[in-house]
Amino acid sequence: MGLREQKKEQTRARLTETAWRLAAERGFERVTVAEIARAAEVSEATVFNYFRTKEDVFYAPLEAFGDRLIEAVRTRPAETSPLDAVRDFLMQSHGLLGRLEPNEEEARERLHSMVRVISESPALLDREQRAFARYTEDLATLLAEEAGEGDPVASAVVAHALIGVHRSLVGYVRQRVLAGASLPRVADEVRDHCRRSFSLLESGLGR
């Protein structure tokens, strides 16, 4: 990555971090793009150079996560099933468990703050659902392309089932974090639920 791209990524990350900090203080609906720009020491136009909407400032990381998940399925070894690829991705440290691994108080407070902001914002909850729907559709399209003349409905069913595990785990994590559970404990619980959920799907979906 060149210096220019590094600076762009740093600016993007600073905008997202600033947006979450302001939302933690006042709530998503009470934070404006102008305030995010001012706190991040950039112009309002700069914010819109990186993000189309205020919701995008907050949810770009989730969409990037979905893109990486789809890419993990697309580039999986020939002997690996889509189910195994999604399971492996979610179980790895860069997947769903990434935010749960640290044991520091600061990490717990940061995640608790993010979960609280999302839970209290209808706009962010709606955006989350639309993000899930988008990469469920992307996965269904990929599986249908791989199947060739196969059943597109079956590909959609598989995609919804696989992404459904992720959606359910996200909901579980949110519930446990708001209840004050320690992150290492939640991480262990997520691993257990992830294994059992995919085993359940595997018994019906197989390869």
From TrEMBL:
Domain spans labelled HTH tetR-type: 9-69
Molecular function as annotated in GO: DNA-binding transcription factor activity; transcription cis-regulatory region binding
Domain of life: Bacteria
InterPro entries: DNA-bd_HTH_TetR-type_CS (IPR023772), Homeodomain-like_sf (IPR009057), HTH-type_TetR-like_transc_reg (IPR050109), HTH_TetR (IPR001647)
Entries under Pfam families matching the protein: TetR_N
Keywords: DNA-binding, Transcription, Transcription regulation
SUPFAM superfamilies named in the record: Homeodomain-like
DNA-binding region ranges: 32-51
Family annotation (Gene3D superfamilies): Homeodomain-like (1.10.10.60), Tetracycline Repressor, domain 2 (1.10.357.10)
Protein name per the record: TetR/AcrR family transcriptional regulator
Organism: Phytoactinopolyspora halotolerans
High-level lineage: Bacteria, Bacillati, Actinomycetota, Actinomycetes, Jiangellales
